[in-house]
Write a structure and sequence with these properties.
Elements lengths: L2 H27 L6 H13 L3 E2 L4 E2 L3 H11 L1 H11 L10 H24 L11 H30 L5 H6 L2 H68 L1 H18 L9 H7 L12 H4 L7 H7 L2 H10 L6 H13 L20 H15 L11 H10 L7 H28 L3 H10 L4
Antiparallel strand pairs: 1-2
Helix pairs in contact: 1-5, 1-6, 2-3, 2-4, 3-4, 3-8, 4-5, 5-6, 6-8, 8-9, 9-15, 9-17, 10-14, 13-14, 14-15
C-alpha cells in the first residue's frame, strides 16, 4: 500500500472539505465584523502558545475562547479567530500543506460544532442559561473535540502505517477527549456568560482564571509526562538487554491490570499501580546475561544469583527520582515482594498471607501466568488450560486465592472477547470489502 499517497490524499480531502464548509458558511451565515473579535483573536493567540504536550495528549486551551467566539460572532468569524490563533512562531515555519491541514482541521471543528449547537436549539448571537441551550453548548464542545480527535487519529494511522483495529485506535482517545472537553467547555461557558454580562472586563477575568488553571493542569501533566518518559526509557534499556525480558514486563503489567480494579482501595489506586507494575522485574537488569538467557534450567549457584533480583530491583527503584513517596513505595513493594508466597516459602523475606502487599500478590499471579504461557529456551509454553490448573493448584499456598479467582475470571473474559474478534475477522475475510479493509487497516496479531 502506498502510504505516502494515502497521507497526501487524506490531507487534501480534509483541506477540501473544510474549504467547502467554510465557503458555504460564508455564503449562508456571514455576520457583521465586531471590534471585540480582535480581542478574542489576541487572547487566543496568547493561549495557543502555551499548549502542554504529553505522551498521550495535548491540552487544548483554544476551546474556552473558540466556543464563546462561535456563539457570539458565528462560525465564520470563529473559524478566522481559531486559524489566526494557530499562527504561532513555530507554526509558520512548517510546510504550507501542513499549515493548511491544521487550519482546515480547526475550521471543520468550528463549523460542525456550530451546526450541532443550532440543531440542538442554540441561537447564534446570544446565549441564555437554560437547560436546552446549556445542553447544546456542551454538545458543541464535545463535537469540537471529537472532530479534532477523529481527524488527528486517522492522520496518525496513515502517518505511522499503524495496524490494529480502527475502533480500538479511536477508543484509546476517548478519555483524552473527555478530560479536556469537560474542563474546557465549562470554562468556555463561564467566558461566554462573563462576556455577555460584563463585556471585555468579564472576558479578561475568565481569561486570567484560565491561565491559572492551565498552570495547575500543566504541572500535573508535565509530571506525568516525565514519569511516562522515564518508564519508556527504562523499557528501551531492557529491550537492548533482552527482547523477551521486555515482552515479559509488558505482559505482566497488562495481565496485572486485568484484575487490579477488583482490589482498588484507599491504599491501592490503579493509576499508581499501572505506573509501578512495569518495574516488577527491573532488578534483572543487573543479572548476568548468561543466566538470563540460559538454554537450560539454572544451576543452584545461578539460581542463588537470580534470587537476588528482588533486592536489586528495590534498590534500583529507591534511586529513581520520578516517583513521589507513594508511587515509589508501591513500585518497591512490587519489585521486592512479588516472589513471596502465601504459605511463607517464598523469597526474599518469607512473608505470609496478608503480610505481602496486595500489589505484589497480584503481580505474583500475573508473573507466573506469563512465565507458564510463554515459550522459554528450555521448555515450550503450557496450554492455557494447564496453566489455569497450575494457578488453581497454587491457591492458598503460592498464591492469594482471591487474586487467582479474579485473574481466571478476567482471563476467561479476555478469551471470549478474543474469540468474538477472531470470528468477526474470519467472517469479514469472506467478503471482498472485508479483505480490503483488513489489508488497509487491520492485521490480525
Amino acid at each position: 500500500m502506498n502510504w505516502k499517497m494515502m497521507r497526501s490524499l487524506y490531507r487534501w480531502l480534509v483541506i477540501s472539505s473544510a474549504s467547502v464548509a467554510l465557503i458555504y458558511t460564508i455564503v449562508t451565515d456571514l455576520r457583521p465584523f465586531q471590534w471585540t473579535m480582535v480581542i478574542f483573536a489576541a487572547l487566543s493567540i496568547y493561549l495557543s502558545n502555551y499548549r502542554v504536550e504529553t505522551s498521550k495528549s495535548t491540552f487544548i486551551v483554544l476551546l474556552p475562547l473558540a466556543l464563546p467566539a462561535l456563539i457570539s460572532f458565528g462560525p465564520v468569524w470563529a473559524s478566522v479567530i481559531a486559524i489566526i490563533s494557530l499562527l504561532s512562531r513555530d507554526e509558520v515555519k512548517r510546510p504550507l500543506p501542513v499549515i493548511m491541514f491544521n487550519d482546515a482541521m480547526i475550521t471543520l471543528c468550528v463549523v460542525v460544532a456550530a451546526k450541532v449547537y443550532v440543531l440542538l436549539g442554540g441561537e447564534i448571537g446570544s446565549f441564555h442559561l437554560t437547560g436546552r441551550e446549556t445542553i447544546a453548548f456542551f454538545a458543541a464542545g464535545l463535537v469540537f473535540e471529537l472532530v479534532n480527535a477523529i481527524i488527528m487519529v486517522t492522520w496518525k494511522i496513515f502517518r505511522d502505517k499503524a495496524y490494529g483495529t480502527i475502533g480500538e485506535s479511536y477508543l484509546n482517545y476517548v478519555w483524552h477527549i473527555i478530560r479536556p472537553f469537560l474542563f474546557s467547555t465549562t470554562l468556555g461557558g463561564a467566558a461566554l456568560i462573563a462576556y455577555q454580562d460584563y463585556y471585555i472586563i468579564g472576558l479578561l477575568v475568565v481569561f486570567f482564571a484560565a491561565l491559572k488553571l492551565r498552570e495547575v493542569f500543566m504541572s500535573v501533566e508535565v509530571d506525568e509526562h516525565y514519569r511516562n518518559n522515564a518508564i519508556s526509557d527504562v523499557l528501551q534499556a531492557v529491550y537492548a538487554k533482552d527482547a523477551y525480558f521486555r515482552r515479559h514486563l509488558e505482559n505482566v503489567a497488562r495481565y496485572s491490570l486485568l484484575v487490579a480494579k477488583d482490589f482498588e482501595s484507599l491504599d491501592f489506586d490503579i493509576k499508581t499501580f499501572s505506573q509501578a507494575v512495569v518495574y516488577h522485574d527491573i532488578g534483572k537488569l543487573e543479572i548476568p546475561e548468561k543466566i538470563l538467557r540460559s538454554p537450560a534450567q539454572l544451576t543452584p549457584e545461578q539460581w542463588k544469583i537470580m534470587k537476588t533480583h528482588p533486592t536489586l530491583g528495590a534498590n534500583f527503584i529507591n534511586g529513581l527520582k520520578v516517583f513521589n513517596d507513594h508511587q515509589r513505595k508501591m513500585a518497591r513493594d512490587i519489585a521486592f515482594f512479588h516472589h513471596e508466597r502465601i504459605d511463607g516459602l517464598g523469597y526474599p523475606n518469607h512473608l505470609k498471607g496478608t503480610q505481602i502487599p496486595i500489589s505484589a500478590r497480584i503481580v505474583a499471579v500475573a508473573d507466573s501466568w506469563d512465565a507458564m504461557t510463554t515459550n522459554r529456551p528450555y521448555r515450550e509454553a503450557l496450554p492455557a488450560a494447564e496453566a489455569k490448573e497450575e494457578l488453581r493448584k497454587g491457591k492458598g499456598t503460592q498464591f492469594d486465592p482471591r487474586v487467582v479467582d479474579a485473574f481466571l475470571k478476567a482471563i476467561e473474559k479476555e478469551e471470549k472477547r478474543e474469540r468474538r474478534r477472531r470470528e468477526k475477522y474470519e467472517a469479514a475475510e469472506k467478503t471482498w470489502h472485508g479483505r480490503l479493509w483488513h489489508k488497509m487497516f487491520w492485521r490480525w496479531n
